[in-house]
Design brief:
Layout lengths: L3 H19 L10 H6 L2 E13 L14 E16 L2 E12 L9 E13 L3 E11 L30 H5 E12 L3 E12 L4 H5 L7 E16 L4 E16 L2 E17 L3 E15 L7 E16 L3 E11 L8 H5 L9 E14 L2 E12 L17 E12 L1
Antiparallel strand pairs: 1-2, 1-16, 2-3, 3-4, 4-5, 5-6, 6-7, 7-8, 8-9, 9-10, 10-11, 11-12, 12-13, 13-14, 14-15, 15-16
Length: 401
Amino acid sequence: MSVSKSSQWIERLAALTLLAALGLAWPPAHADSEEMLDTLQMHGFLSQALVITDDNNFFGPSSEDEGSFEFTEIGANVSLRPHEDILIAAQALSRRAGGDGGDARPVLDYGIVDYQVLSNQQRTFGIQVGRFKNPFGFYNQTRDVAFTRPSILLPQSIYFDRTRSLALSADGASFYAEERFDNGIMRLKGGVGTPTDRDLGKQLFQPSLDYDVKGDTSSIAQIIYEHNNGRFNAALSAADVNLDINHGSSDGELNFQPWILSLQYDTGSWALTGEYAVRSLDLTGMGAARKSDTTGESWYIQYSKRFFNDWQWLLRYDRMVSDKDDRSGKKYAEQGRGPAHSRFAEDITVGLQWSVSPRVLLAAEYHQIDGTGWLPLQDNQDVSETERHWNMLLFQFSLRF
C-alpha cells in the first residue's frame, strides 16, 4: 500500500511515545489490563507543503527556483486511561520548518498525566503534570495538526511560527475547570512551568550571534466562554514568560507578557474571528546596546466560509508592530539596529481548503505582505538584505490516520 511505510513509522513512534508516557504514572494495581487496553487510542498525521516567495525566505529557500519543500510535519499521538479518572496522553512530532534541518528530529510535543478530580453534569475540574500545551488564543492548543487550523499558516501576528516551541508547551503543572450553564460553558485553564526552548537562540536572535536561550519559571492562564453551542465564543489569555539568555560572558533575562482578547461568531456555515494582543517585552542584563523595554501590538480579523460541504475559503487581514511607540520602525533603523520594516508586518491572506475525505486535506493560500516583523531569522541570515514588500504562495497536502 502507498502509505504502509509512513504508517509503520508512525506506529513505531507512537509506541515509543506511549512507553515514555507510561513511565510517568503507574496504573492502580487492581486495574484490569484488558479494560485498560480498550481505552488505548493511537493516531498519526503527516503534512507536506510547498512555499514560494518572490522575495525573502520563509521555511527554507522559498525565493529560489521552484520554491521550498522544507515545511514538513510528521506526528503521532497516543492516549490511555489506566483508571476512569486518569488519562495519560503524549505526542511526538518531527517538524522541519526551514533552517538547517536539525529541528526535524522527533521530539515530545506534549506528554501529560491528567487526573480528573471532579466531573459531573454541571462542572469539571482536573490537573495535569508533564509537558502541557499552553492555553492562549483560539488555536494554540490545536495548532499542531493541519486539520485543526483554519489555514496553512495561522495569523503570524498572534501565533508566531518562528518561536513555535516557546508558545506551544511548557514543562510543569496545569489545571482546567469547566462550569456548564443552560446556554453556555465557562472554561478556565492555567499552568506554571518552564517553557520549551528548543532552538530559541536562533529564533529570537540572528543565528550568527550564537545566543543561548533557556526557559525559566513562567505562568499562563486563560478564561473562555462559549455561548449557544459555540455560536459565540470569547476568550482572554495572559502569560508571564521568563527566559535566561547567555552570550559569551554576558548574561541577561527576557520577560514577555502578552494579553490576548479573542472573539468569534460561528454560524456553522460561516465564521467571523478576531483576536487582539498587547505584548510587553523587557530585556535586561545584556549591556546598553541590547537593553530593551517595548510594548508591541497585534491583531487580525478573519472571515471563513464553508461551501459544498467539504470546501472552505478564507479572507484575513493581519497586522503587528513590535513597538507601539515606533510603529514605522524609523527610530529602530536610526539606531543602526536593523531595517525599519523588520519591526512591523501587514498581511492580507486568501486561502482555500478542500477536505477530499475525513483523512485527506488539500489547501492553498496567498499572502501579500508589507514588512518582515515575523519573518524567520534562521532563513534570512542577513536582515539588511530582506525586502519590505513581498508575496508568498503556499500549497499543502495533509493526511491523518
